Amino acid sequence: MEFSAQQIAALLGGTVEGNPHVTVNTLSKIEEGKTGSISFLANPQYTPFIYDTDASVVIVSKTFSPEKSLKPSCTLVRVDNPYESFAVLLNAYDSFKRNKKGIEQPSFIAEGVELPEDVYIGAFVYVGKNVKLGKNVKIYPNSFIGEGSVIGDNTTIFAGVRIYHETLIGNNCTIHSGVVIGGDGFGFAPNSENNYQKVAQIGNVIIEDNVEVGSNTTIDRATMGSTIIRKGVKLDNLIQIAHNVEIGENTVIASQTGVAGSTKIGKNCMIGGQVGIIGHIKIGDNVKIAAQSGIGGNIEENDILQGSPAMNHGSFKKSFIVFRKLPELLKRLELLENLFKKEQTK
Q: In 13-151, where does DSSP find H-type helix?
């Protein structure tokens, strides 16, 4: 689908400088711009590329002043903030590309499923009994939706997702490929025979509105009650969320982090990659945890931590300075010991 420079300017609240009727049908980086594409210039480091780009339309700041002539084929759309405006275009383009509807075959839809007319169900999808799908839900091929689950309006389930029974997912969520939601929590009890008896996991998972879950992340169902992901949470790829965990609204967690069972994480937290968090603790609101940290106890709100075991970020930096000097300090200590021994022998 093609859009003119004038239509794009209207969408972004910008003005056209050049040919308002030139059309584009794809997006590109400015250094890779081709005829028929639209790009943007926000970082001054990329300014040299605008003079040679073949992009038909480039979004620039209203204050941008070319130092030399642009190619005649290049039309500018001037806006207040090029980066934000291009993000708007990216979202619009992504929505257009995802605008799928209908039910592909072969697929299986069990009895009692609530199925609005505007949903998309890809090939080889299984939808279990009494599932409720909201408006504009999109379920891509090879996904499984367990019985009794609910998926809210405008939520996208990408290919190969496994959603176990009685999972509740809110509106405007995105679940990427390979995610498993509602698998059993890691519940085993030692018995008299010195092995482990499985503890049935009879709870569920609740994911509120505007949550995004990255590829191959797993969110376990609760032993009893619910594992809860609050609204606005963003989970990266390859994250493990254990049974009965609760993650507060608008918290973001980077890849390869593991959260053990029954831990409660507050809202607006930022957790780096490869962080390990033990179970049954509470992490306060607005906490920041640096990558590869190990969290072994409760954390007060607004704290910033780093290291394993984690400590206050400021204390960690001071300690690290000392740690780097340990070889030098060891030499000085050995020198002092030798001097002391010489004094003792006199």
A: 47-50, 82-97
**Same structural domain, 142 and 282:** yes
DSSP annotation string for 152-187: -TT-EE-TT-EE-TT-EE-TT-EE-TT-EEEEPP--
pLDDT at 317 over 80: no
Last residue of a domain, one of 97, 128, 150: 97
Q: Which of 21, 243, 280, 313 is catalytic?
A: 243
Contact assessment for residue 146 and residue 129, using Cβ atoms and an 8 Å cutoff: no
Structure confidence at residue 320 (pLDDT): 73
Does 91 share its domain with 114?
Answer: no
With a pLDDT cut of 90, the percent of the chain lying above it is 81
Looking up tokens 């005649």, which residue turns up? 72
Identify the bridge partners of residue 42 per DSSP, sorted by sequence position. Answer: none
What span, in angstroms and rounded, lies between the C-alpha atoms of 341 and 289? 47
Q: So what's the pLDDT on residue 322?
A: 76
Angle, CA 266 vertex, CA 261 and CA 271 arms, to 5°? 80
In the residue annotation, 243 being an active-site residue is answered as: yes
| Same domain membership, residue 23 and residue 165 | no
| Statement to judge: residues 65 and 140 lie in one domain | no
Query: Tell me, what's the pLDDT at 142?
Result: 98
pTM: 0.82
| CA pair distance 138, 120, nearest whole angstrom | 5
Backbone angles phi, psi at 229, to 5 degrees: -110, 110
Reduced DSSP (H G I as helix, E B as strand, rest coil) percent helix, strand, coil of the chain, to 5:
20, 30, 50
Under the banding of pLDDT at 50, 70 and 90, the label for residue 97 is confident
Confidence of residue 338 (pLDDT cuts 50, 70, 90): confident
Residues 6+ apart with CB under 8 A from 309: 294, 295, 296
The mean of the pLDDT values for the chain is: 93
Cα(first)–Cα(last) distance of the chain, in Å?
94
- In this prediction, residues 230-257 reach a mean pLDDT of 98
- 286 is written with which tokens? 């607005």
pLDDT at 28 over 70: yes
